[in-house]
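Worked problem 6 (solution included).
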Amino acid sequence: MPTTLTAFADVTTSDSALRRFLHGLPGVDAVGLEARAASLGTRSIKTTAKAYAIDLAISMIDLTTLEGADTPGKVRALSAKAVHPDPTDRTTPTTAAVCVYPDMVATAKAALNGADVKVASVATAFPAGRAALPVKLADTADAVAAGADEIDMVIDRGAFLAGRYLDTYELIRSVKEACVRPDGSAARLKVIFETGELSTYDNIRRASWIGMMAGADFIKTSTGKVGVNATPANTLLMLEAVRDFKAQTGIQIGVKPAGGIRTTKDALKFLVLVNETVGDDWLSNHWFRFGASSLLNDLLMQRQKLSTGRYSGPDYVTVD
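Solution. The predicted structure is:
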């Protein structure tokens, strides 16, 4: 199978070539996409399958705090929750990662103390991405140097919407390079499109292909900081994109819906989308994540209900 660079070398030589490729992608049938997402959302998961799905969803969460009021104490508490989401039940899986701002990476890394939980850091002037390229690259490099295992970058939506596709591609390539450490290892790169600002499903498909061609390890819906974040339809579209990309290149890319996923019912709908669209290969936290914080509490309460037969109530879990 060809690599990303060789498969798309001609496509990314100029803005006009990239535009021809992106606008040559099949148009998205919005009605059909939303109908399929809605139909898959009606699937019912019961008993042992539900218990398995809840644990899987917990293991896929990037437990996130991205507020101006974040303190080292809050990050340490969140890290402890990521390692032991339910301190009274040590069979509860750890979350996939703790996601913080770059200045809190070292604090999270120390708090996790070698636990099997990644440290993810937003970068590139998150959430708006309105900064010069050297600032974005320095933001990334600082997070990687502090010990970040994963970088969640934002694209410049203004450049993309203005049709500057090659600038968007080159930004992602540059950030990808900034994820490489001196020893040759690299932080995994998640590319956030802010789908709520891209206006159309066709734009989401085009952004997905730019991200994948540029070397993203994950494509991610949203920052969680705008009105419209992850939806079943936009996530389904991105799952179809990674499926088609793997079929063409042999390269597997992860997907991360983020923002607005708050309940167990929501999470299970997304897992059905994954299973029915891309299959078992993506049903692990190496290839699928939830960007969420409040979701974990609801998953824990539902897990307790399956275990004891009664709801524990919201005071059973910590308030993040």
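Discussion: The beta strands are 61-64, 97-100, 118-123, 150-154, 188-192, 218-220, 254-256, 290-292.
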